[in-house]
Amino acid sequence: MVDASWTDIIQKADIVLSVIPPRDAVSFAERLLREFNLVKRVHKDPLVFADCNAVNVGTIKNIAALFSDTPITFLDACIIGGPPSGNYVPTVYACAEPIDEQGLRQFEKAVSKSGIKVRVLSGEGTGISDASALKMSYAGISKGLTGLFTTIILAAHANSPATSDALLQELSESQPDLLARITRAVPAMIPKAYRWIGEMEEIAGFVGDGEGDIYQGVSKIYSRVERSLAGDKTDVETLKDFVEAAKKRI
């Protein structure tokens, strides 16, 4: 991987993938469009721009609208899974409006060559927002559960160490699979909590008022973990202690 100027990107790139914190997705797309209007492309083929960020359907539709009536082909995409490691690779899901089918297939072919799995969303009613909705749904379950684990571990400990110990004992006896997941999910979350704050806010918007409020709460717990990690680390140590004790019970 090498750094590239905006001029190089606009002139020479076939495909641009945006993989950044959700809060920056709109401003990055706006910047790309501004730069595109200032630079003459070397390639004759249209530039394909794939937004792969964890944003809700309203946000992705607003981003897509920026590229309507432009020569840029816009794709809605999402990444499910962590960074490539060993034999593991994440899966990229992508979709587009029917008029942009050629750009979608170009994206599928190019990204697949890199060794990453690509799945094109198709079927009745498929269009911009389907990949983002999938990301919101999947992360709402996976990262939402981790947020619930974190919330209750901290709440039990705040009540008393005895409550925390009793919770651990009961989980080990009645929910061993859940406890095993806690030992994997919570430690992996701690260094990533800062990235998941905005993602939970996007999921709250995707779910909607009322029911979506639960994800505003999860966003707050990830913000709390981020502050602890940067500060006195009290909450972080509480989580780590619970996990270490849990490992001895499973």
Automatic annotation (TrEMBL):
InterPro entries cross-referenced by the UniProt entry: 6-PGluconate_DH-like_C_sf, 6PGD_dom2, NAD(P)-bd_dom_sf, Pgluconate_DH_NAD-bd_C
Domain Phosphogluconate dehydrogenase NAD-binding putative C-terminal: 158-225
Protein name per Swiss-Prot or TrEMBL: Phosphogluconate dehydrogenase NAD-binding putative C-terminal domain-containing protein
